[in-house]
Amino acid sequence: MTDNVKNQVHEPLIRVRKRYTMRWYKSWAVRVIAVIAALLICALVIVLLTGYNPIDVYKAMIEGNFGNARKMWNTFQELAFLLCISLAVTPAFKMRFWNIGAEGQTLIGGLASAACMIYLADKLPLPVYYLVIIAASILAGMIWSLIPAFFKAKFGTNETLFTLMMNYVAVQLVSFFIVFWENPKDSNTVGVINRKTHAGWLPTIADNKYLLNILVVAALTIAMYVYLKYSKHGYEISVVGESENTAKYIGINVKKVIMRTMALSGALCGIAGLLLVAGTDHTINTTTVGGMGFTAIMVSWLAKFNPIVMTLTSFILVFLDRGASEIATRFKLNESMSDMLTGIILFFIIGCEFFINYKIMIKKSRKEEK
Predict the structure, then answer these.
(1) What is the DSSP letter of 278?
(2) Do the domain assignments include residue 370?
(3) Domain annotation covers residue 14
(4) pLDDT tens string 109-128
């Protein structure tokens, strides 16, 4: 009877089974193969749709990022900002708190920087002035992130929707203050703050306005790696992310961890806003963050919440974005063409994670089983 039941059980031809683990060199080999396959597909698309030599197109992408010193520093500058915001969302994501509000938290941090630069210029000693700007930016980002964290910890609200809606509130606040401060014809832009005095502008290193930002983000990357991997707080974040019930059972205050982690996330977003407004742009508008708060989500997930690996994933996304713009400009192509190439490459990069985490099982024939 048992044998008959076994024979009647239908086994699918193809099954998907989750892998327990894959050796690091095999996982990276899969990623390399995925990138090579993506480049080959892109080359085919380029030839069929444009008739250009794919090698010339790829060369243009490299030159768009490293063609000269200015382009190279711009690439590292964008890399630094994307990485900084990615670091900010990582502790929350590792805790399984879906913080989709990094865009707004960064924007509010930048707004606080702009307000201090406008209202406190020449009213405080220079060291105190800089400290106030830094503290205000960090505090603003923290407050903006603690609002959804409080409601999540206290009432169990949906943090995804809450943090997402906070982005729109932040954008409208920036729009209001732009009009309030200068009342320009275009309500989405504001002039350079303290253009003549440079009050509140972060100092440059070696006559390079980007170098300070890059060094700050590099230090934050190392600090975040150590914090998540070796600190007690990092351990608690991991446990809460795995199971809140387990965390409560071993004595971890889950509500406290949520509040503390989101405060850290908001603080880092505030620093990103500070570096954007006081460090490089010296102005603020509704598009200052430029969507990096959402791109950072992809960076963090692709790197599996590892701050060091995030450096690589951030670089890939920045490289593709800047390279796509260079392609569109140099070859007089429609923006959609360059976006298509970027999409193909990202599809392969993200899709290869399936083969790293899952294994495809094919049913063996009876002859093979014998």
Answers:
(1) I
(2) no
(3) no
(4) 999 999 999 999 888 898 99
